[in-house]
Design goal:
The chain has 137 residues and is mainly β. The protein has strands at 9-14, 17-23, 30-32, 36-37, 42-43, 48-49, 54-55, 60-61, 66-67, 72-73, 78-79, 84-85, 90-91, 96-97, 102-103, 108-109, 114-115, 120-121, 125-127, 134-136. The radius of gyration is 15 Å and the shape is globular. This is Transferase.
C-alpha cells in the first residue's frame, strides 16, 4: 500500500503549536496559513511567506527570500534573492529589493523604487525615491 505524503510542512515556532506552510501553486514556495498570496504571484520553492502577509498579483518572491508577518508586497514588486521583508513592512507596486536586502519592521518602500543589493532599511523608515533619501515614517 502506498503511503500518502502530506501536502504541507509544519514548523513549530511556539513549543507545542505548529505552524503549517503550504506550497504555492506558482513556484512551490511555502505560504503559511493566514497569508494571502495571489495565484498570479510567484513564490520560489525556497522562499517563505508568514501568516498575515499579503503578496499581490504579479509579485515575485525570489529564492531564499522571506516575507514576515503582516507584511505587504505590492503588485509586480520583486523581493530579491535572500532578501527579507520585515513585520508590517510595505513594498510598493513595482518596487524592487535587490539581493540580501533587509527591509526592517514597519518600513515602507514607495512604488517603483529600487533598493540595491546588500542594503539595510531600518525599521520604521520610508524610502520614497531611488536615491535612498530616507525619512522617518
Amino acid at each position: 500500500m502506498a503511503r500518502r505524503r502530506k501536502k504541507y510542512v509544519e514548523i513549530e515556532e511556539v513549543p507545542g503549536k505548529p505552524l503549517r506552510y503550504w506550497p504555492h501553486a506558482l513556484g512551490g514556495g511555502l505560504v503559511a496559513e493566514g497569508a494571502v498570496v495571489d495565484p498570479q504571484a510567484y513564490v520560489h520553492e525556497s522562499a517563505y511567506v508568514d501568516p498575515g502577509a499579503h503578496v499581490a498579483p504579479g509579485a515575485r518572491v525570489s529564492s531564499g527570500a522571506w516575507v514576515a508577518e503582516d507584511a505587504f508586497v505590492g503588485e509586480d514588486a520583486v523581493v530579491g534573492t535572500n532578501a527579507s521583508v520585515g513585520r508590517s513592512a510595505r513594498l510598493g507596486r513595482g518596487a524592487r529589493l535587490g539581493m540580501r536586502v533587509a527591509l526592517g519592521d514597519g518600513a515602507l518602500v514607495a512604488d517603483f523604487v529600487t533598493i540595491d543589493t546588500d542594503e539595510r532599511v531600518p525599521s520604521g523608515t520610508a524610502v520614497l525615491r531611488d536615491e535612498m533619501d530616507r525619512s522617518a515614517a
